[in-house]
């Protein structure tokens, strides 16, 4: 895929506080890229710099080879959809959708065709004469998206657009956005702090923390092969344990030796070990690598979530098989499901989660 946007050496501070530090990122044509991270990590600031609502202190925004760093939002070939929808309450749905096209002096027939096309795309045919306050939150969000896509932007920026919706509606809208992206061929850049949302919709996820990119990859890569403890902890649930890499393919966890597949960490090296809760296998007492006792059980619908106290660590376990509280169990883990990571060597490195 061709490169569409290139963010080069972007830094931004507010009131002396560094929000983004030397960020480099490129976005490809027709990609659904999600900026994911906790509040204050710099993801919305990155989006606002892309949209032209903020100017970076240093660095450039390159769009299809052209420097647009200093261009105002209305001159950029992109549109932004905000969480608050920002619909004009005194205008009908048709007038809301037509707003950007009227500014561009498009003909009446062109505008009417585009309104019908956009409403059909977002499954709201016949809503032209309704007022925004007569619509549900999900419908208002779809109108905000329709208003953006009629301008035929090459790039659509979405800033937590589903944050105000209830769970079922949010899930429905996730599928709608994937469908729209595939039908329209528009590049989507999506900001969220919701890991499930990012994993569901994205081609590429950029995990951010404290103004730095922690990891870039497909949802599968981010989930199954986190590059540091921050990513492992932020994306889904994880057991993150201190370990010692005794030698290639052998790690000591809580005093017990586990086979793994990782190499190149040296001998007797302190490491962090990540094991996903669904990868912890509970077996009858006496048959596991280490022994423990079930201390807590919750039924989650598709699986049971259990906590198992073993060697002073409370293991999180997800399984379709239930073990009652008080049951003595063994713990086994397949070598392929043990992820080894370098420990941070300094406080700075720990703060930004960089893996050397």
Concise account of the structure shown:
By secondary structure, the protein is α+β, with helices and mostly antiparallel strands.
Question: Please, could you describe this protein's structure?
Answer:
- The strands form 4 sheets. Strands 6-7-8-3-9-10 form a 6-stranded mixed beta sheet, with helices on both faces.
- 35% of the residues are buried.
- Strand 7, helix 5 (167-184) and strand 8 (187-192) form a beta-alpha-beta unit.
- The protein is built from 9 helices and 20 strands.
- The protein is α+β, with helices and mostly antiparallel strands and 356 residues long.
- It has helices at 43-51, 93-103, 108-121, 137-149, 167-184, 195-201, 219-224, 229-234, 347-352, and strands spanning 3-14, 17-28, 32-36, 58-63, 66-67, 78-81, 155-159, 187-192, 204-209, 212-217, 239-247, 250-253, 256-259, 269-275, 280-284, 290-299, 304-310, 313-319, 328-333, 339-342.
- The model is unreliable at 346-356 (pLDDT under 50).
- The chain folds into 2 domains: 3-224, 3-Layer(aba) Sandwich (Rossmann fold), CATH 3.40.50.300; 229-352, OB fold (Dihydrolipoamide Acetyltransferase, E2P), CATH 2.40.50.
